[in-house]
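Hi! If you just cloned this repository, the fastest way to understand the data is to look at a raw example. We've pasted two of them here, unedited. The first protein comes first, obviously.
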Amino acid sequence: MDLIVVGAELLATVNDAGDEHRGGWLAIADGVIVAVGHSTDPLPPAAEQIDASGCLVTPGLVNTHHHLYQNLTRAWAPMTDKPLFGWLEALYPAWTDNLDEEAVYLAAWVGLAELALSGCTTSTDHHYIHPAGAGDLLAAEISAAQELGMRFHPTFGSMSVGRSAGGLPPDRAVLDEDDILARSVEHVQRWHDRSPTAMVRIGLAPCSPFSVSPDLMRRTAELAERLDVRLHTHLAENDEDDSYSLEKFGMRPVDYFAEVGWMTDRAWAAHVVKPNGEEIARLGAAGVGIAHCPSSNMILGSGIAPVAAMTAAGCAVGLGCDGSSSADAASLWLEARTALLQAKLTSGPASMTARQALQIATRGGARCLGRQSEVGQLAVGAVGDVAVWDLSGPSYAGVGDPVEGWLRCGPTAAKHTIVAGRVVVRDGSLVDGRLTERLAAHRRVAERFQRIIS
């Protein structure tokens, strides 16, 4: 064995049966879980042993929607005083005129480090701004993820309809659609790993109805089918999104989503705040995934997504931090807790438990990414991605149920985060020793963005 985690206060497997083991342990070899045991089972020998006494052990959390580059323009109050469209229009110029490989690499490195500290082991990213001469921004992100040891599902995002053609982004931020499709093929061929233990997989992600054409949406869906990769976009994000689709396409966003060939279980969509009952049923019947981004939706005043109804309809619902220009904090624990509170507020106190929120944050997210059999659970044959949560201290005094206590008390960060059997966060600190250096470089680059928007 390479690594064994022993002595958990509770080991929550989030497997199909929902098994939980007091005093449980698990063993990892070659990046894969090879044994899960009870407190009375004999422990196998291992090269490294992690003591999880007093801790909840869960699968690593899965982030299904992010814009990592946005942590270069974080918590800028004048921008988040605007709803979605005004917020985007205010920030597009700073992003477009300043992004390059260095900026994207540093933003990804810092953002993924922040996620790891919150117990996240798998993250996607939706990067859709590729300024002329900026370099290979997808490769820059992947380089950062590989250095940190994070499991990464970046999407090649795109925008093709600028302001002069009725879109939202400035014209200098958009790409030719044939070029977008050609680059999509190149990125998939270069990076996409189809193995069950893959550390990198690529999705295709035209940004939104207000920044790409219906033709690009259709052609991308066809290309994803041919290449057998996943599809991602923003959908039904707020009232402005509804109004834009009705004005430009003569239909609501979910109808448009279906019209361009995206109503499939290959697709997962971000936000989905404004679907009606009939649309929820259609999304669920098709098995469309939903990246629920509760903090961002509240900060931009977009609304609260009907998660309980979408889950009941059959949608694969996961969690997303969204970009740090709106959500500000890249903490999957925070998103899970906020999702729990929102569900109780909007659908009643019995509508969601902490275990259901944990399931959304793990198996639900894995299902969005097409990896529900090997990611998001602690089971033999699953990847060795684990989060260990310390439940000691005054915040957890009196807790009887470790899972409910983990989510309802706190705030909390992971004590240990393990990806593919390798410790990425140990005793609450990033194992990679370059964090201070990277933060200093990130600050230098971020100041360039701040000068543009101030």
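Ok, and the second one:
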Amino acid sequence: MKILVASHTYIVDLNCEKLRALSQLEPGVEVTVVVPKRWKPGGVQNRIIETEYRDEGTFRIVPVSNFSQNHQGLLTFGTDLISLLKQFRPQIIQVEQGSRGLAYTQMIALNKLLGLKAKNIFFTWWNLPYELKLPVALLEKYNLNHSHGIISGNQDGAEVLRQRGYKGAIKVMPQLGVDESLFTPKAQPELAANLGINQEDFVVGFVGRFVQEKGLLTLLQALVTLKNKPWKLLLLGRGELQTELIKIAVENNIKERLILIESVPHDHVTNYINLMSTLVLPSERTSKFKTLTSVGWKEQFGHVIIEAMACQVPVIGSDSGEIPYVIGDAGLVFPEGDAQALANCLVQLIDKPYFAHTLGEMGYQKVMIKYTNKALAKQQLEFYQELVNSQESWVINK
């Protein structure tokens, strides 16, 4: 099976591991990844990434000339895409820019014009209802009507697509898996000593942005009620709430229990997760989406959850977005914004070490079965095979 995947995501080599694994699953599977030749990462001023061609046999990264260097929805490719499609002749074309991506429209049109007869698929993280105006509404309708299948990063996103009128096949799975060779249980005695963490400390951990929607104020509020417990709070990241978090800690005489670590390289995150007695992701939904310009957010997946699970660290998450589906029965879930419920979850793990250990084991098993790059690659290939074997030539949603 010849598979072509297009996205700016795969400019970063670390993000390619699932697709590499996909190319090695079965004889005859070839994966060509189309990436923009030039891309400007969001939030990084005056930095342009120049991508390079890479050939690893059944796995290739092919830079293609592109229009729009920093907006994934407006990303489209140059005429060198046509020669690539003619030469490779994929059976699967997957574009990871969402339902309104111009690159996806471009791929659908070229698929038809070149007579490739490939199955059209797109990936999306979008998980909140929305309204569209012309001409974007027509663009999305065209894309949905010509999609043979969709991969949604979360359950809510799949439901939104159904509400938009899509009747075809939808697979729910994240875009990227966890590297189990990197995120693995490993004691960190030197790092613990450097941070003043003792063996008797129960380390509550958080990894992410210090922003309102990540629920850090709820987490701190829950911990304030547990002053009689031997906890420390390890926060890895940075953001606008940092000053307020320190202020609250000082006011409640818990500043000495707070350990703040600035963002570290991704391959170092595992060291800090392995210091944690539990990882908490207390995300909270913001205001509802009504249009694409509205301000709002809901947790799309929570990748750090599966990284912690891979380290056998028990996890606690709010019921925001995809979190409860990711955790399932392999951790604890509380109503978002409910500090007392979160405190109750923490007490369960602090007071019952055996229970905490059991949850860590359950989380580890779940990740190994479902969320490693190889596990996700298998799920993706099975979805492709179902679509290719389908007798339906086009999915028409009317």
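That's it. A detail worth noticing about the second one: The domain at 2-175+373-389 is CATH 3.40.50.2000 (Rossmann fold).
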